[in-house]
Amino acid sequence: MEHPFDPIVKMKDFGHENVYFFNDKATHLQGVIAIHNTVLGPALGGTRLWTYVNSFEALHDVLRLSRGMTYKSSAAGINLGGGKAVIMRHPEAKYDKAYWARYGEFVERLGGNYITAADVGTKTEFMRYIASSTSSVAGKPDDLGGGGDPSPVTAYGVYLGMKASAKKVYGNDGLEGKRVAVQGVGQVGRYLVGHLLKEGADVIIADINEDNIKATLALGSCQVVPPDAVYDQEMDIYAPCALGATLSEETIPRLQCSIIAGGANNQLKDEVEDVKRLQARDILYAPDFLINSGGVINCYIEVIGEYNRVKAFEGCERIYSRTEETLHYASTHGVSTQDAALALAQERIDKAKKLTE
Ligand code: NAD
Known about the structure:
Blueprint: H1 7-14, E1 18-24, E2 29-37, E3 43-44, E4 47-50, H2 55-76, E5 81-88, H3 97-108, E6 114-115, H4 124-130, H5 151-170, E7 179-183, H6 187-198, E8 202-206, H7 210-217, E9 223-224, E10 237-240, E11 259-260, H8 273-280, E12 284-285, H9 288-291, H10 294-304, H11 309-316, H12 318-333, H13 337-356
Parallel strand pairs: 3-5, 3-6, 4-5, 7-8, 7-10, 8-9, 10-11, 11-12
Antiparallel strand pairs: 1-2, 2-5
Helix pairs in contact: 1-2, 2-13, 3-4, 5-6, 5-10, 5-11, 5-12, 10-11, 12-13
Bound molecules: nicotinamide-adenine-dinucleotide.
Nicotinamide-adenine-dinucleotide (NAD) binds at residues 150-151, 154, 183-189, 206-209, 212, 227, 241-244, 263-265, 292, 295.
């Protein structure tokens, strides 16, 4: 009988190309790199530093996340494949230069098939150390010619995806006077609020971190609501920009909006059931992996040549047309927007694969 968390079964299901374990006793470095698909290009995805109960849990996570990267890059229309790395936190690890340089050596062994970047638990500064032992790293600090913090680019893409969704629902993409609630005003959320205020939207914000609320209010006037009350606001657009899995059986019935368009990863708690719940309530859901792909676009600009932030913002502009295309596909094929985005991403990979056969 198959065990529900049997990593071998998951690997087979997801169709990964390669999975590598790495281990260095001297620095207490231990983790897994998963390359899901390289049809469109080298597999790019961040390195997550997390407390995992055991290596099976780490493996399960990296298989899921690397597959997500394949679809994110394809949906964004860039020539990158999907990969990811997870590192298991260790109580004795120092997370210093030696630690990250050792990790870079493992990345380097993959000969450019996997390009790493920052993710949850890792930051731009660590990329500097990783870069001392491999060139397969993106999101490096500015002084190393890297793209640095991708959040402004990510937020711009979310803003464009939101506008394309507004065009579909309201007939034009203007956000002036629209009530938009942003959950989580950290890096991405705050930059998004900046765009919304500039366009004259009526912005509601919620965060558990008072400092982030204060920093956001410095951008302009917003209505602040308690974190849990954000779901119950009368609003046109809801933008989840905090954690994943906040769209669920519990929250969807409370939402009074016509569009959901936010930057958080994996917003749907249950990809199948929550999509149905949103469809039943006639709420347009802008697929998260499509509209928050600005971060990976930022890495792509760094990988393909000399990094330039203007080019990264320009690269992000395609999110508008790709969102329009996805929403059109969903209505003409009678499928959910989530399934439409996945189908279009898969179509692009299949076409590229045919060219190489
Ligand atoms: P961040 O940590 O800077 O911001 C998250 C914010 O959410 C913080 O202010 C935090 O206090 C707040 N928050 C946490 N729990 C909350 C709750 N229950 N209610 C309200 N607020 C809450 O992170 P970020 O870089 O802005 O990323 C936000 C989301 O976007 C994450 O899901 C991330 O994976 C995703 N994402 C980020 C990027 C990027 O470029 N930074 C790219 C793609 C996706």
